[in-house]
Amino acid sequence: MPRPTRFKHAIYESATKLFSERGVSGTGIREIARQAGVSEAALYRHWKGKQQLAREIFVQGMADLHTALVTEVPTAGPVSLSVLATVRIFFEAFDENPEVFHYVLLSEHELWRTIDADVPNPVSFWFDLLRGRVGEFDLPPELSNELLGPITLGMILRPSIAAAYGSVAQPLASHATTVSHAICRVIGVPWTAPADTAG
Q1: Average pLDDT, 10 consecutive residues per value, the chain (199 residues)
Q2: Cα radius of gyration (the chain)
Q3: Eight-state DSSP code of residue 144
Q4: Which domains does the chain have, with CATH numbers?
């Protein structure tokens, strides 16, 4: 691997870890460079500063998860299979890289308020999925998508927080079916077990 690419990767990994642990405002450029084992000058060769680096990691993390959702979640057939595919992708993303997952989806930072509408967004994907199929849900009419989206998103994200603290066993993906079944009960759709887990 060429040296500049290796340095860039080390910076990216260190920044992600620090942003996840301390937030963007609590992390300094010097700290990122030191943890990556590079000079501050090496960091500035790739990014203008901390904010640009933070935004790039955030947008790329969202885009990667969004791509997996768009590619793998069925838009037709039983709602429960769409729910299960979505939950599984979120949980696998946590298992693969908990620090990126935490930074992108669990940190309530200012970048969420600055993203453009055209930036791929896994949260919007979930809300749009619910909105598109709400006619199939057995729900009280007052439970609008504005409430339903956050309620069910919490059912996806909170287990990852519990897993990070050790109160939910890992890998998190091993709980995808259980959580998906619970979401289906909340939204009022029948549970259709996928062929590989039926019975």
Answers
A1: 63 90 88 90 86 90 95 94 97 95 82 76 93 89 80 96 94 97 95 68
A2: 19
A3: -
A4: 1-47 (1.10.10.60), 56-187 (1.10.357.10)
Whether a cis peptide bond, with omega within 30° of 0, leads into 171 is yes
CA distance 172 to 179: 10
Q: Give pLDDT, residue 1.
A: 38
Q: Is 188 helix (H, G, I), strand (E, B) or coil?
A: coil
Question: CA of 48: how far to CAs of 22, 96, 191, in Å?
Answer: 21, 28, 49
Q: For 67, what's the count of Cα atoms within 13 Å in the CB-facing half-sphere?
A: 6
pTM summary value: 0.87
- The one-letter amino acid at 173: A
Let me know the angle formed at the C-alpha of 188 by 184 and 191, rounded to the nearest 5 degrees: 45
What is the reported pLDDT for 172?
Answer: 97
First-to-last CA distance in the chain?
48
- The residue whose two tokens read 């979640």 is 73
Helix axes 29-36, 50-72, angle to 10 degrees: 70
Question: What is the C-alpha to C-alpha distance for residues 46 and 43, in angstroms, rounded to an integer?
Answer: 6
Q: How many alpha carbons fall within 13 Å on the CB side of residue 164? A: 18
Q: What is the rounded CA–CA span in Å between residue 152 and residue 127?
A: 9
